[in-house]
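Q: Sequence in, structure out?
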Amino acid sequence: MFRSDITNEVSHFRKCGEFAIKVPWPFWNRSINLAVSAMPVREGGAIIITMKSLNTGEWFGHKVEAMENCEESNVHFCSAYIETISEN
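A: Exactly. Output:
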């Protein structure tokens, strides 16, 4: 990975990030702009996270642009349920 930035932060639970990885020749490097939202679960120490890729345009007033010299990747929809199982 040669780039990993939070490009916009609306709240602690809603952020936009830009990520890029290098891949070997003859392929093009890959990049993605992700919108990430999280929500704590009321019972227990858990959180639900959802992610999807952003197209070029705007996201909460933040301009989203494709990265130069990279092929755009897409995440149509991704979610995760993360639960604390111990203090450690």
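The chain has one domain: 3-83.
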